[in-house]
Design a protein that fits this description.
Elements: E1 2-5, H1 13-27, E2 31-35, H2 42-50, E3 54-56, E4 66-70, H3 77-85, E5 89-92, H4 96-110, E6 114-118, H5 124-130, E7 137-140, H6 143-152, E8 161-165, H7 171-184, E9 188-190, H8 196-209, E10 214-218, H9 224-236, E11 240-243, E12 259-264, H10 270-284, E13 292-295, H11 306-315, E14 322-330, E15 334-338, E16 344-348, H12 349-352, H13 359-362, E17 368-376, E18 382-386, H14 388-405, E19 409-417, E20 420-425, E21 428-433, E22 452-461, E23 465-469, H15 471-488, E24 494-503, E25 506-510, E26 515-519, E27 540-549, E28 554-558, H16 566-573, E29 579-588, E30 591-597, E31 600-605, E32 626-635, E33 640-644, H17 659-684
Helix pairs in contact: 4-5, 8-9
């Protein structure tokens, strides 16, 4: 048994566009309601309801914080006027093919012409079309009703008449109506407004039904185009069944069938179609081991990736599909263009460019655009056009040429996906694997999103798939910069660099393409335990070249400035016999160390703390205490300063002490303290 799925099945352009608008509004945080169900599919309506989308019958039901979506069927002019007066925010998702009919009837009826509409007068699309008529109009649903109409209103034969059809009207009935009108109404202007998707679906359904034993039509029972598909199939195949979901399938339908055909309405989600095919296969497989499922269906717009959509446009491309259009109108979401031959085209913002653009500032009336026709109804209809896909064709040639030449290309990182990033260049999608996206494997891919990058094409795959490398360009640029740096630097040079990373023993600094290291001892004149106490990753700092090793490509950098040396500052500002205010910072058995300035401490020997015998420094002093002391000795070579509190006390109560004894005892204490501190530091390390 063979199961054949029609090539054109699932969402048409207009339905997909309307549903996507609702999803976009919901994802942006808007509270959304639709004027009637967004499409005639209860499953989709229920799904949107679960996302908070309400269905309302009129503008008065819309709440202040909601936005009202006009569905793809369109509405009459009065609905817009009512909503505007009520202050309701609108999102117009009217199918462009339907909007074309609105424009036709508005223009022709304003001239006083009678409007004839082929369609179902109770269908919302037809009600919307009527709402744009300002002159007399009549609706007919078949050739018989049209004949009766002309018989009852014979004046129509003599006066100017414009004729349009509902976009989903039965193509065969429309053809018969046209033949009749051309015979009896010589003044009639006939606008062929049946959507090309509808015509194609009906033609495919007719072809399948003529060769199949069973036909399954998938779609909402209230969907006009689905019902018409059923009518088309039922006239050619008696065993035709209309279902909304896979749960309605019955095994007995297929008991004597060799060939089964499946078609779906324009408002049927792709997921439901897949579920029907899957369920049908599961039902029939035990019965027929030779069953073959022939799925010729194309992916719907909602399922296609940008690359797949581009592929689809190329697969069906002919010279006639490349056009040059003149811009006649622009709004925030769409461009209207004239492409000649009486066809008005529309370019959505998404189809204008791969990059987000402000159409109002980017495009002006009378601009010329090179475009590709994605969908067109007929000579008098509406075309859906794409500029980005036209650009992508030329862009692809550049991509292929760049692979052969090794040329460096420029693009923007649009997405971070599993395994790498997606870059767009010349309107072509290029995949950059994670291993080729950054200079180091540890670098974050997320930081690339939205940035402009240079890259090379390293592989061209089937189906116009390109793979690129950012890393190769980065490494080449870094190598060039490195050679330039090594050719120009010398010991003693001062350079501004950027801190790239920190370790426990120092900081690595990029000095223009080459990394050098500042040892922790070179970061500060004060004693520090971690480089992070002085610098952070990303800081721009001034360093100088301490040493170079060209063979090992190692650079030692210095960061401490000589003028910041605390001993240099001390030497410039302090002398022996100066009285200074100091802060006690530590105690030993032989005295106390006091901070004179940051980086310079002096020793107050225990004998110089008071004018009396002191058993231990803690008896007279505490850490953090500020006291006045006199500088009694300075040894700059050994970085030692001796202090005395005792010499500042009243002479009559102070015990005499020989100055050389003070110095000698102080120096001995310093030696002892330095040795003790060195041992303590080694132990700590």
């Amino acid at each position: 048994m063979n199961i054949t799925l029609a090539k054109t099945a699932g969402f048409c352009f207009g339905v997909n566009r309307a549903v996507q608008m609702v999803y976009d509004l919901v994802s942006s945080g808007e509270k959304v309601c639709t004027l009637g169900p967004i499409i005639h599919n209860s499953q989709m309506v229920d799904e949107l309801k679960s996302k908070g989308v309400r269905v309302v019958e009129n503008a008065q039901e819309v709440k202040n914080d909601e936005i009202l979506v006009i569905r793809s069927h369109g509405v009459g002019k009065s609905v817009y006027e009512t909503a505007t007066k009520a202050g309701v925010r609108l999102c117009d998702a009217t199918c462009p093919f339907v909007a074309k009919i609105h424009k036709i009837v508005a223009e022709q009826s304003s001239k006083g012409e009678v409007i004839l509409i082929a369609g179902d007068e109770n269908h919302h699309e037809v009600i919307g079309i009527i709402g744009h008529c300002v002159s007399q109009y009549y609706v007919f649903s078949n050739e018989s009703e049209l004949e009766n109409l002309i018989e009852n209103h014979p004046e129509i034969k003599e006066i100017p008449v414009s004729v349009v059809s509902q976009t989903t009207f039965n193509a065969k009935k429309w053809q018969k109506a046209q033949i009749f009108l051309k015979k009896v109404c010589t003044n009639a202007k006939i606008f062929d407004t049946i959507c090309s998707a509808t015509s194609t679906r009906q033609a495919e359904a007719r072809e399948l039904a003529a060769t199949c034993d069973v036909m399954v039509v998938i779609g909402g029972r209230h969907s006009s185009n689905t019902v018409k598909l059923y009518d088309v199939c039922a006239t050619l195949c008696q065993n035709t069944h209309l279902i909304e979901t896979a749960s309605e399938l019955k095994v007995e339908w297929f008991s004597k069938a060799n060939n089964v055909g499946v078609v779906a309405g324009a408002s049927t989600p792709a997921g439901i179609i897949k579920e029907v095919i899957k369920t049908m296969s599961e039902i029939l497989q035990p019965v027929d081991e030779q069953m073959e499922v022939v799925e010729t269906v194309q992916k719907s717009f909602e399922e296609m990736t940008d690359e797949e959509a581009f592929e689809a446009s190329l697969n069906s491309l002919t010279g006639e599909q490349k056009v040059c259009g003149t811009v006649v109108a622009v709004n925030a979401s769409e461009i209207t263009v004239d492409i000649g031959r009486g066809v008005t085209g529309y370019v959505s913002a998404d189809e204008y460019s791969t990059e987000p653009v402000d159409l109002l500032s980017e495009v002006k009336v009378d601009d010329k655009l090179n475009l590709i026709i994605m969908k067109i109804s007929d000579q008098e209809g509406t075309a859906m056009l794409s500029k980005r896909r036209y650009d992508a064709i030329a862009g692809w040639d550049n991509i292929v040429a760049a692979k052969d030449s090794g040329e460096v290309l420029h693009g923007t990182v649009r997405d971070v996906i599993k395994g790498g990033v997606v870059v767009y260049s010349n309107n072509v999608r290029i995949f950059i694997p994670a291993s080729q996206a950054t200079a180091s494997r540890n670098d974050s891919l997320e930081n690339l999103k939205g940035t402009e990058v240079d890259f090379r094409i390293i592989e061209i795959g089937r189906g116009r798939r390109a793979i690129g490398s950012i890393r190769s360009v980065l490494r080449e640029a870094r190598k060039e910069a490195e050679e330039k740096v090594w050719a120009s630097i010398a010991v003693g040079d001062r350079i501004t660099g950027t801190v790239k990373s920190l370790t426990s023993y120092g900081a690595f600094v990029d000095i223009g393409g080459v990394d050098g290291m500042v040892h922790i001892s070179e970061l500060s004149w004060n004693r520090i335990k971690n480089p992070a106490e002085v610098v952070s990753v990303g800081d721009e700092i001034e360093v100088y070249i301490k040493a170079l090793d060209p063979e090992k490509r190692k650079i030692s950098l210095g960061y401490k400035k000589a003028e910041d040396n605390p001993w240099t500052i001390f030497q410039s500002n302090y002398n022996v016999d100066d009285v200074v205010k100091v802060t006690i910072v530590s105690m030993t058995t032989y005295g106390a160390f006091a901070r004179i300035i940051p980086g310079v401490d002096g020793l107050i020997h225990i004998s110089q703390i008071a004018n009396k015998h002191v058993a231990k420094p803690q008896d007279e002093l505490t850490v953090g205490q500020e006291v006045d002391a006199k500088i009694t000795a300075i040894d700059l070579d050994k970085k030692r300063v001796s202090l005395s509190i005792r010499v500042l006390l009243e002479p009559e109560v102070a015990e005499e002490v020989k100055e050389d004894e003070v110095v000698a005892s102080t120096e001995d204490a310093v030696v002892e303290e330095v040795a003790a501190e060195a041992v303590a530091e080694e132990t700590a390390e």
